[in-house]
Specification:
It contains ten helices and ten strands. The chain has about 250 residues and is α/β, with parallel strands linked by helices. Strands 6-7-8-3-9-10 form a six-stranded mixed sheet, with helices on both faces. Strands 2-1-4-5 form a four-stranded antiparallel sheet, covered by helices on one side. It is globular, with a radius of gyration of 19 Å. The termini are far apart.
């Protein structure tokens, strides 16, 4: 594993009772880049994410993080190593304030996430960091608002803030733009670009215009296998990729 590679999968496969969801996937994510994992529905993208982060165990293959074999590591241990993910479904504490959601995330590394009975004054030490994270995702003006009242796009921004609270070296974003309107897409794409300035990002995303604008490298999956890989200019001209997205008629038109 070379020094530029922070995360690598070698021959990664996952079967479910005879169904092969992921087949012999090789993936190398370079340090300090934005790497997109794309493909049609059912291509195996989320399964790969679950394998990389320990939520599923591979049937075959290995996963290396900074040269260390993490193939059988548990999700919590993977996160503690600095490999942290978000999920497709919005997940915030709706009755806590926006600030409190981030503060709970900041407490996790301290082992005090559920010490709700402690005096409020004892948590003020985390406020500056929590406010800084909210500032980074443009939510500082909504710090006191219940998280459940946020529009969908702003909830996704809050999730990114809580993920950043764990200080990840590699951030895995599972469809961060799903369900967003145009304004939220632009805002969140800009946020991902800012976040990636100081860390590595691997993301699953269906919005190809955003993928083209943000990504250094794109891996295309189809039926659980790697179909193509490279910069957008290269993979977008690959006839197999065009066929996978648009059908054979588009390729021969």
């Amino acid at each position: 594993m070379d020094s530029d590679t922070v995360l690598e999968a070698r021959g990664l496969s996952r079967e479910f009772k005879g169904f092969v969801a992921v087949k012999a996937v090789d993936l190398r994510v370079r340090r300090g880049t934005i790497h997109a994992l794309i493909g049609p529905n059912g291509a195996g993208k989320s399964t790969v994410f679950n394998l990389l982060t320990g939520f599923l165990a591979p049937t075959r293959g290995r996963i290396l993080y900074k040269g260390r074999d993490i193939t059988r590591a548990k999700p919590a241990d993977v996160a503690r190593m600095g490999l942290v993910r978000s999920f497709q479904i919005s997940a915030v504490f709706p009755h806590l304030s926006v600030l409190e959601n981030v503060r709970v995330a900041l407490q996790r590394p301290l082992g005090t996430s559920f010490h709700f009975w402690k005096p409020q004054a004892g948590l003020h030490a985390l406020h500056d960091r929590a406010h800084a994270l909210l500032e980074a995702v443009n939510l500082a003006d909504r710090a006191a608002r219940p998280a459940g009242e946020l529009p969908y796009g702003r909830k996704r921004a809050l999730e990114i803030a809580t993920t950043l609270a764990l200080d990840p070296e590699v951030l895995l974003l599972d469809e961060p733009l799903a369900g967003m309107g145009h304004e939220d897409i632009e805002r969140t794409a800009a946020l991902i670009r800012r976040v990636a300035a100081h860390r590595t990002v691997l993301m699953v995303e269906h919005n190809l215009s955003v993928v083209a604008d943000l990504s250094d490298t794109i891996t295309v999956l189809r039926r659980g296998e790697v179909l193509a890989e490279g910069p957008y200019a290269t993979v977008s001209r690959d006839p197999q990729v065009v066929e996978a997205y648009l059908g054979t008629e588009a390729v021969h038109a």
